[in-house]
Amino acid sequence: MTWCDWQLREWVYPVFGWFDEKGHRAVNRVYLECGKKSGKSTYAAAVAAYMTVFFGEHGAETYCLASTEQQARIVQLQVEQCFRNSPELVPRARIRTGALIQWPQTDS
């Protein structure tokens, strides 16, 4: 996936580019609102997968909320698809379809 310049500027950099004086992320909650077909679900799925696996935080709990059950299901399925499409990730993750994804290496 390739991000558009505006997605990087408005979504990615503000969330992952700010740190406090101790080196911790300054942002730990995000509310994102924009028009249809702008990539919100894909962005949410990518962030959820990243925060669970690659951020390196032990015991991380990643939640992705949506305004409808249907939208939440879309994001959950995209996260599952992200894991299942990766030969490196799928054997190391525990996926309960439509419910939960666990990363045992960090108990996340």
Describe this protein's structure.
With 108 residues, the chain is mostly helical. 39% of the residues lie in helices and 6% in strands. It has three helices and two strands, in the order αααββ. It has a two-stranded antiparallel ribbon with strand order 1-2. Helix 2 packs across helix 3. The model has no long low-confidence stretch (mean pLDDT 84).
Give a brief description.
The protein has about 110 residues and is mostly helical. It has 3 helices and 2 strands. It is about 40% helix and about 5% strand.
What's the helix count? 3
What share of the residues does DSSP label as strand, in percent? 5-15%
Strand order of the largest sheet: 1-2
Main β-sheet: number of strands, strand sense, barrel status? Answer: 2 strands, antiparallel
Helix vs. strand class: mainly alpha
**Mean of residue pLDDT values:** 84
* Uncertain residue ranges: none
N- to C-terminal distance? 24 Å
Gyration radius (Cα, Å) is: 14 Å
Helix content percent band: 25-40%
- What is the 3D shape? globular
Instruction: Report the strand count.
Output: 2
Compressed to H and E, one letter per element, the order equals: HHHEE
Please give a handful of descriptors for the protein shown.
single chain, 108 residues, mainly alpha, two-stranded antiparallel ribbon, 3 helices, 39% helix
